[in-house]
Every structure is written in C-alpha cells, then in structure tokens.
Amino acid sequence: MRYDNATVRRQDRLLSEERALELLREGEYGVLSMASAEGGYGVPINYAVEGDTIYLHCALEGRKLRAIANDQRVSFCVVGQKRIVPEQFTTEFESVIAAGRARLVEQDAERRHALRLIVEKYAPTHLEEGLKAIERSAHRTGVVAIEVDCLSGKCKRV
Questions:
Q1: Dihedral (Cα; 73, 22, 138, 143), 10-degree rounding
Q2: Backbone angles phi and psi of 13, in degrees to 5
Q3: What single string gives the DSSP state of each residue in 7-28?
Q4: What digits encode the pLDDT tens for the residues 109-156?
Q5: 28 φ, ψ (degrees, to nearest 5)
Q6: Is the pLDDT at 10 greater than 80, yes or no?
Q7: Tell me, what's the pLDDT at 146?
Q8: What is the pTM of this model?
Q9: How far from chain centre, in Å, is Cα 4?
Q10: How far apart, in Å, are the Cα atoms of 150 and each of 52, 64, 97?
Q11: Are 114 and 143 in contact (CB under 8 A)?
Q12: Helices (H), strands (E): how many in the chain?
C-alpha cells in the first residue's frame, strides 16, 4: 500500500503515515463509496484490516455487491478524532481515505478468517461466542476484500 498525500489540497494539514495507518486499523467504522449503474453509493460499515487488505462483512446480494460487480474501484474513508469548535466555526478532525479494488471473497477459508478478524476487533472479550456465530451464519454471510492501492490522511488541529 502506497501512502500518498500529493493530491491533498491543504498540504499543511497532512496526517503522518504512522497515524494514518493506526487510524485505518483502529477506526470504529468506515464509509465505503462506490459507483454503480444505480448511481453513487456510500455505506457506513464495520471492518477489519490485515496487511494491505480491508475486510467488510455483507449479505450475499444487494446494492453493494451490484456496485462492486459494475466497478471494482472503491474508496473507504475512516474519520477518527473530531471536535466541533463553534466559536471558531470549524471542526478539528483526522481522517484517512483508502483507494483500491474490491472483490467478493470466494474462498471459504479467507472468508472465515476475515470474519474472525472482525470479531476480534469488535468483540474481543466474546471471541468464543463470535466464532460460534460465524459457524451459524457462514452460509449466509459474504465478505468483501478491498486491496488498498493508495492511502492518504488529513487532519485539522485548532
């Protein structure tokens, strides 16, 4: 994954690569944005990161999968620390945007591994129950993998 802030307009607001990667790994949720025959589509979703891959869970059909089938190019945005500063009419924030190609995970082993990563991130104290839930719903749960090509990060401090 290449870290590239060259296209960020406000070069004085760059997020360090280290913080951008940390935010991507630890963010609460991200917004997956896609283009499709139905128009632009963005959806907030839980996720997990391993290496240069972002994993998302999903149903086995729906608008998200139709959009990815139409065009695998996607972006994924995570917003971290944020604070509205009303007296200055601004907001402090940090965010990271990953651009890459999405695919539906076909191999069962990779799909189960991705679901485990998601359980480990969001329910680490309930891992045993989470693994049982994966077994119960594996037949009706899809996983999308985003292979990240480029990452950029931005922040504003007041």
A1: 0
A2: -120, 25
A3: T-S-GGGBPPHHHHHHHHHH-S
A4: 999 999 999 999 999 999 999 999 999 998 899 999 999 999 999 878
A5: -70, -45
A6: no
A7: 98
A8: 0.91
A9: 17
A10: 9, 21, 8
A11: yes
A12: 4, 8
**At 154, which amino acid appears?**
K
Q: Is the Cβ–Cβ distance between 56 and 143 less than 8 Å?
A: yes
Q: Which residues of 9-44 are buried (b: 16+ CB within 10 A; e: fewer)?
A: eeeeeebeeebbbebbeebeebebbbebeeeebeee
> Which of 33, 62, 30, 67 lies closest to 49 in space, CA to CA?
30
Q: Which two tokens stand for residue 99?
A: 């651009």
Average pLDDT over residues 13-18: 85
Tokens 């719903």 sit on residue: 137
Taking the CB of residue 137, how many other CB atoms lie within 10 A of it? 11
Residue 69's Cα: distance from chain center in Å? Answer: 18
Parallel, antiparallel or unpaired: strands 53-58 and 90-104: unpaired
| CA gyration radius, the chain | 17
Picking from 94, 101, 116, 95, the residue whose alpha carbon sits closest to that of residue 50 is 116
